[in-house]
Amino acid sequence: MKVFVADTDSLSISKLERSLSMSGFACEKAIISGKVPESLFHYLVNGFKGVVVLGAGLDDDLKESWIRQCRKSETVFPVLVVTQAKRRDSLMKFNEAGMTDFICLPLRPDELVTRISLLIRQVYPSDYAANVFRNGPFVFSRFPNKVLRDGKEIELTVKEFELACLLFRHIGQPLSRVTIEETIWFSSENELSRTIDTHVSRVRNKLDLKEEHGYRLQQVYGYGYQLVEV
Fold first, then answer.
1. pLDDT tens column, 70-88
2. 175 and 115, same structural domain?
3. Where residue 119 sits, what CATH number does that domain have?
């Protein structure tokens, strides 16, 4: 599931992208200084799946035009507009053009993540449901990345979350270092070996994967790691 972020400069985009990336969203971005390229519209209206975020720096007329163009798509995807609260007339125009939701400045990262998550649940309910799985006291979900144990959220980094999901989806099955490297880091370089060990240790500690709690995260000598239920 992608979040497409557009604004007039890289700094503004980074402010939007940072909190989304830290929550596990795959972000794409575009710096728009004038008219939106036709190639970009073509990309969005031909099978894009995710949420489009239009930054506050974009001209209101450009935003309205962009929203109308997005609504020509054969597939329905939500468009969220970042704007000033005082621009009520513009908000009415955006709404008439087909805006799905808006968020007002000053930007609050947690609110942005929550709004994006709600839009995905509303527009893509089957995709959201397909990315929720349970094992014992644990519940893993995406959009945003979240893991609960007995209903209490455990804070993980993006890589820690991906590693935990990989281990739990293959519980009882040994995973090689190469598999872990290529799946989580998209690489298979030797210098990643210590990084893997560090992340495994953090996942073990944060999720409290101990035998007395029903799990054992063990090293498979010369091969990799394995999570087992005991």
1. 888 777 899 999 998 777 7
2. no
3. 3.40.50.2300
